[in-house]
Amino acid sequence: MRRLVCFLFASIAPLLAAPDGRELYQQNCSMCHGIEGVGMAGVFPPLAKSDFIVKQREKALRGPMEGLSGTIEVTGVTYNGGMPPALPDDGQLAAVFNHVFSPWGNDAAPVTPEEITKLRASTRFPTLEALKASMLSETLPAAPEGWLLTLGAELGFSPTRLAAHPDGKQVLAISATGEVLSWKPGAPVMTRLIRPDSYIDQSLGQQAVMGLTLDSQARLYITCNQCDKSTTPVLNRMTVFRTEPWAGNDGWSVPKAWFKTSSPYGIGPYNHGLSHIAQGPDGVLYINSGARTDGGEPGKQPNYATTGEEPNNRRDLADESGRQSTFGRNLRKRSAQ
Length: 337
Description:
Layout: E1 3-10, H1 21-28, H2 30-33, H3 51-55, H4 57-66, E2 68-74, E3 77-83, H5 90-101, H6 113-120, H7 128-135, E4 147-155, E5 161-164, E6 171-174, E7 180-183, E8 191-194, E9 206-214, E10 220-228, E11 235-242, E12 256-264, E13 277-279, E14 284-288, E15 315-318, E16 324-327, E17 331-335
Parallel strand pairs: 1-4
Antiparallel strand pairs: 2-3, 5-6, 6-7, 7-8, 9-10, 10-11, 11-12, 13-14, 14-17, 15-16, 16-17
Helix pairs in contact: 1-5, 5-6
């Protein structure tokens, strides 16, 4: 008997009705360059207050179209890494660059889709279709013995987490912005189940949704981090959302905040907030989380905490119903009841 593995390949068909540079940046760029474009010195160049964007505009624009490698200098720091091409279309790519150019102290002229199209024609992949074709090899990696690996679906985003649907016939996926979708093997596209604006309070700041799981009662859990710049220091507002149990054809209810806490927001390109969530065999939910910083270093950005490692990273908290949870340095756990 051969077992079938469906391989989800990100990304192609755009899911956004209109280009949203901020959201597209978060989906495609923030993992390396950071939500606020500060990068990581010597590793990922900054996009905020970047002289490279102005002095070498064409090279900067070509990067997402064909990739960028070799030595470059950005604000006096040398970088010698590699950047893969990205798959937003010309209008979306223009929106991403305009998001980068406008809010972060960059003095660069706006980008138009026409400029992107004209410049793309001179790259290694003269059209978006040519770039996509270069990434869709017909030869998939070898599967383990007894397994068959096939291409399942082409996505318009990179999912941060996958989970098995309780009906046993579908796969759930969630995006970094909090959109929950389902995919049935054999279907060419995914189905939207829950929109992020239906449950995430956008006023708390830009969200980074990293966790998705179901418990033994088929309740859906989502972990969300939001950068709240209205406070000093800037805080990471962390929320675990939960639905009612899956109701068959009626699906899930709108997720509601089930657990909330906060800590100083990470100072580099990464924010070590709530990540993966899963229910253990003991019935307890476990949530993975790193330290607030990447190495205890103090913050150097205005309005960000300068404490280094957060001294109160371990404490007992209670939710609105009084249920106790352990908020630990590397692990958070609580009862699912």
